[in-house]
Design goal:
Blueprint lengths: L7 H18 L4 H37 L1 H12 L31
Helix pairs in contact: 2-3
C-alpha cells in the first residue's frame, strides 16, 4: 500500500468523530432531544387528564339525558325554581373550608 494512503482511515474516522460531536452538541442535538421527550411526557399527562375530564363530563351528560330526576334537580338548581308548596332554605353561612361535614367548633370565651 502506498504511504500517502495509510493515514486516510484515521483522517476519515477523525472527520466523522468531529462531525458527530458537532451534530450531537449542536442546536438540534441531545439537549434538544431531551427537551422534546420531556415535552412529550408532559403532553401525554395533559392528554390523559383531559380524557379523564371528558369521560367524566360525558357520563354527566348521559345521566342528565337518561335520568329525569337528575335533570330536574339540575334545572331547579340553576334557575332557582321550586315546586308548589315547597320551602327552600338557603344557608347564609357556607360550609367551612376544613373539608369536613361538620362546622369548626366555636372559640371558647375566657
Amino acid at each position: 500500500m502506498k504511504k500517502y494512503l495509510r493515514p486516510l482511515p484515521f483522517l476519515i474516522a477523525l472527520v466523522a468523530l468531529v462531525y458527530g460531536s458537532l451534530v450531537l452538541r449542536g442546536p438540534r442535538g441531545l439537549s434538544d432531544l431531551a427537551e422534546k421527550r420531556a415535552e412529550a411526557r408532559r403532553l401525554e399527562r395533559e392528554n390523559a387528564e383531559l380524557e379523564r375530564l371528558n369521560n367524566q363530563k360525558a357520563g354527566r351528560v348521559k345521566k342528565l339525558e337518561n335520568d329525569r330526576s337528575t335533570l330536574e334537580i339540575e334545572i331547579r338548581k340553576i334557575l332557582g325554581m321550586k315546586k308548589e308548596n315547597e320551602t327552600v332554605f338557603k344557608d347564609s353561612n357556607p360550609m367551612p373550608a376544613n373539608g369536613g361535614g361538620t362546622p369548626s367548633p366555636a372559640p371558647v370565651a375566657p
